[in-house]
Each structure stands twice: as C-alpha cells, then as structure tokens.
Design brief:
Aspartate Aminotransferase, domain 2, four-stranded parallel beta sheet, 13 helices
C-alpha cells in the first residue's frame, strides 16, 4: 500500500539510478530517458560537474535566509542578467512559483505608477503556467480548474492563433499578455518569430507588458538560451525553472528595470528561493549550457533528430499527423490517442510523455549523443511499423 496521495497516475516502475541519457529500473532494465523529468535534467542524469557543485556547496552551507546576502545567488543573477534582456532576477523554487511571481510583478508595476486597476492578464486558452491557484486560472483550462473554486479573477483568454480575439480583449484594465513561447502541455505549439514581434509591437502600442513563459522551453532547449531569442524580441518579464537547475529545484523571474522598480522590500519573498545549494548547481548548469559551442551542438543534433522524425512521418502518414517543436522540445502528433504509442515505446525501452492533442512529447537531455538519438529513431520506427 502506498501512503502517497493519488493525484498522479504513476506507472508501476521505479528507478534506482540514472546516468546521462539513461535510467536503470529496480528490476534491472535500462531505459533511454527522453522525458528527463519533463525537461528538467538539461544535462542528463548525474552529471559530474553538477554533482561536484552540489557536493562542494553541501559541505559549506545549505541554507540561509534571504534577509542576508547570498553570494552564489548574486553570481547567478549577474550571469543571467548579463546573458539576457534582464536587469534584475528574483529566485524561486519551481516554475509555478515563477509564473505566479511574474503575475505579481506585472500587477505591482502598474500599482507603483498609480494605475492599480490595470491588473488583468491575457493568456492562451488551455496553456500551462503551473498548478498553483492563480496559475491554473491563468492557464484557462476547465480540466485544471474543476473543483478549485471560487475562481481566481483577473485573467482573460484567447485561442492559440486567434489574433482578432486577442486584440479585442485588451482594454483599460489589461496589465500584460502572458504566453508560453512554445506551449508544452498544450501540444508543443511554437509561437512563430513574426508573431512574437507583433505581440511586442502590440504591447508597446497599448502600453502593457509582455511576459514570455520559458519554464519548459528556455535554458538552451531550442539551441538558443531562450526560445524567443531568434525573434530578437525583448520581453518585460520571463519566468524560468526546470532546465536551469539540471534536476535541482530552481525557479526565477527575470525582468527589466522598468517593472522591477515595483518590487520593493516586503512585496514578495521565498523561504527557500535562491538558497546556496540551488544557486551553486544553477551556476554550474549555466556555465555549461550558455557556451556558444554547446548551443551550436544542440542545434546541430536537434536538426538531425527532427529530420529523421520527419522521414518516419513520411513513411507512416496514417499514424503521425505532424512533427512539432523546436530544438529538443519535440512533439509527435498522432491521429489517434497517444497512450498506447507511448506504452509501446516504453516496452521498447524508450521513455516519452504525453501532451495535449494526441501528442507524444520528446525531451532528450541537451547533451544527448547522436548514437542515442539514432537509437530512439530506430525504436520509434519499429513501433510505427507494428502500430
């Protein structure tokens, strides 16, 4: 009997160790892990440099209150700000915390300039911004909000790609538009660069903020440090998490100086956010994934993988409807429900996970080897041939 609550539909399998792209189960099986904690283990399992950073810091200091300076956090914040659009960084522990904090930053900014009624956030319907109360109502999903009333007010929604609806929603109470640069749970839908540029222009015209949620698609997953970088757009606020910790819980909100001025002492806090252990690991991850050579290799390997997946799609056009995604945030949209397909992949020792719209989500570690990508291609091809 398990004493854990039943809010997860857990598969009947446990793992005793992980190394690189592989997981090893307690019953002796070896799996090619293309879930990686849902884009969390950006450098695979048990990366030696991350292990070293964690072990070294654990011998010095685990935790200290944010009432004091935390040098490791100062160091990572400087790196993130120097690398990106941001002027300031606020550390959290998860993606949901980061998106909730991003909402607070946006609303607090308008409060600070004497416009407290500008507090509504426009989001894409059936997106995903986390599982906390405000985050599920921001996501606009009936499935996620059912049973968790009363409704958290302050969010308006439009369907993916419905630009007319988006423009109609903007009014004098609108504070920001918040979207995932690439929708993860929503089916691996990429917002095109031209659309990101138009969103920035629209926000400028209406004098509202642009929040780009990069919790899943950021931190080198697309071959750029942020997925929006190819558009040359500069958002106002960006929540991040997952990949920046490489498996250790870290979240953060990056922001420009304009919106940051609203975050004065006492406006927000986090007991564990920015703790020395997390920051030491985050620094180690950043130092690896931010290198131009690393990012270039992600682009090269992901291009190879996507090309091979498209060949399978052409071979099995009645099974695979579309190959979606960018970099190593990939979706195989099927014509049928994906549950049996994912099970068949798992039976062949390849781990993947679902997303909406019959999509099989594929999330290799960013440092995956080409031979491992080829192995995954062979398994997917085999499953298609018998599906």
């Amino acid at each position: 009997m398990s004493y854990l609550t039943k809010n997860y539909n857990r598969k009947k399998i446990a793992f005793k160790k992980g190394k690189g792209s592989y997981l090893y189960s307690s019953n002796g099986k070896k799996y090619l892990d293309f879930i990686q904690g849902i884009a969390v283990n950006s450098l695979g399992h048990s990366h030696p440099k991350l292990n070293k950073a964690l072990h070294s810091q654990s011998k010095r200091l685990w935790h200290v209150s944010n009432a004091f300076l935390i040098p490791e956090g100062e160091k990572l914040a400087k790196k993130l700000a120097t690398k990106t659009f941001a002027d300031f960084v606020m550390f959290k522990n998860s993606g949901a915390e980061a998106t909730e904090a991003a909402i607070k930053v946006a609303r607090r900014y308008f409060f600070s300039i004497g416009k407290p009624n500008k507090n509504r956030i426009i989001c894409i319907k059936n997106s995903f911004h986390g599982r906390t109360l405000a985050a599920i109502y921001a996501s606009g999903s009936k499935k996620m909000t059912e049973g968790f009333g009363p409704e958290i007010k302050g969010f308006d929604h439009f369907n993916f790609g419905d630009h007319k609806r988006l423009k109609k929603l903007i009014n004098k109470k609108t504070a920001a538009i918040m979207v995932e640069t690439i929708m993860g749970e929503g089916g691996i839908k990429v917002i095109p660069d031209w659309c990101l540029k138009e969103l920035r222009k629209l926000c400028n015209k209406k004098k509202i903020l642009l929040i780009l949620d990069e919790v899943q698609c950021g931190i080198a997953r697309t071959g750029d440090f942020f997925a929006f970088e190819s558009s040359k757009v500069k958002p106002d606020i960006v929540p991040i998490a997952k990949g920046i910790g490489g498996g250790f819980p870290i979240g953060a909100v990056l922001m420009n100086k304009k919106v940051a001025k609203g975050m004065t002492p006492g406006t927000h806090g986090s007991t564990f956010g920015g703790n020395p252990l997390a920051m030491s690991v985050g620094n180690a991850v950043f130092d690896i994934v931010s290198k131009k050579s690393f990012l270039k290799k992600v682009k090269i390997n992901s291009k190879f993988f996507l090309n091979e997946l498209n060949k399978i799609k052409e071979k099995y056009p009645k099974i695979i409807k579309e190959i979606r995604g960018k970099g190593f945030l990939i979706g195989l949209q099927l014509y049928k429900d994906q549950a049996n397909f994912i099970k068949s992949l798992m039976d062949n020792n390849l781990l993947t996970i679902r997303a909406s719209e019959n999509t099989v989500r594929i999330l290799p570690p960013l440092n995956v080897q080409k031979r491992e990508l080829q192995k995954a291609i062979n398994i997917i091809n085999k499953v298609c041939s018998t599906y």
